[in-house]
Amino acid sequence: MAFTAGICQRRSHFFFFLLLHQRLLTFSMSVANAGLAAAATSAEAEEAKQVPPTVDAYDALDEDRPIAPDQFDPKFETTKWEIWAYYSYYVGNNGLTLFNFAPTSFQDLLYEAAGDSEILHFLGRDRTINSIVLLANGISFAIQVVLFLILGSFADYGTWRPYILVFWSIVAFGLGFGWLGVHTEDKWPVATGLYMVGLIAYQMCITFWTAAFPGLARNTAEMRHQAEAYEQGEISREEYDFADMMQRNRISNVAFIMQSAGEIIILAILVGILFALDVNASAANNLWGLSVLIAYATGVWIVLSIPWFVLEKRRPGQRLPPGLNIVSVGFWQLYRAILQIWELKQSLLYLIGQLAFLPPSL
User: Fold this and answer.
1) Which end of the chain is more exposed for a tag (fewer CB within 10 A), N or C?
2) 115-137 per-residue burial string, b: 16 or more CB within 10 A, e: under 16
3) What is the DSSP letter of 157?
């Protein structure tokens, strides 16, 4: 089977729903940061009125304040090298490992193991390859839903976010190198496990990495000056929010540009590896080539992630709302996201548009 054919294997529509789910979770995280990025809505004001009288005034209004305490602590000021380290991690976590080549290798192994019948015994009965892929996707997706509901709030609250990112990155690194031992058709059950856990690890890594950029943005020298100006009444809330939005957009967009440019270099080297392994010579070479590519991209990810692990400043997260704990606040975030997305019609149309304009092939 030619390598190019392997890359073009038909993917399940699961990947779209996985992306949609991640976008909704990311939005729910951003809602909790509404006091940092957008003016308080009337709904939020109503919530503030309902805060129990036992909570002091600062806690009651904390949700409406656009200034985070860490903005006034010099030790948390964002440095140039920290921002570049943030970009570097994204270049490494480009999806080539567990989100691109791993699914391709997984499906190739299924086809090689099943032969012309395209039937394999999985979870107690004979199933088609498409059925196995869909079940694997569904199981992985269900686990992700549970993990994000329980751990998603750690991205915004407390100080555990950096450590969760390091943990899942290490898991992803191990999975990436694990594919070196899974390149023959008899290993397809192992490949199924690597595939499912790999999807989970990739989504956890990209989500907890993404959650760091609001803190980076608000602690830049520019935003610290804006925060001081707002506290002194020199600028309005709207002006502060606009500056915050632009700073976040700048970091997010530059990260995407750097990731795209870096991936071109990674792919150029990858092509050389393909020729060296002669992946078009046989199905065995093709499968071995995919395993090597996953390991190669994993090695690049490790090298490019180290600067971020070292240089990131462990900034404190938000304080938990009264009456909520680190687990229950995740459900509260999701609830608020569902309610408030109706006020952000452009975001809602974007999500609907992704669903409505799916290519028929998916």
Assistant:
1) C
2) eeeeebebeeeebebebbbeebb
3) B
Q: What phi and psi, each to the nearest 5 degrees, are found at residue 159? A: -125, 15
What is the pLDDT at residue 203? 94
Tokens of 350: 């974007």
Q: Note the pLDDT tens digit of each residue in 117-166.
A: 889 999 999 999 999 999 999 999 999 989 988 888 888 888 899 999 99
Reported for 171-174, long-range contacts at CB under 8 A and 24+ positions apart, including other chains, are: 171/197, 171/201, 172/93, 172/97, 172/98, 172/198, 172/201, 172/202, 172/205, 172/298, 172/301, 173/298, 173/301, 173/302
What's this model's pTM, rounded to 2 decimal places? Answer: 0.78
Q: Strands, DSSP E only, in 62-153?
A: 119-122, 125-128
Using DSSP, state whether 63 is helix, strand or coil: helix
What mean pLDDT is predicted for residues 86-103?
Answer: 94
Q: How many CB atoms lie within 10 A of CB 355?
A: 10
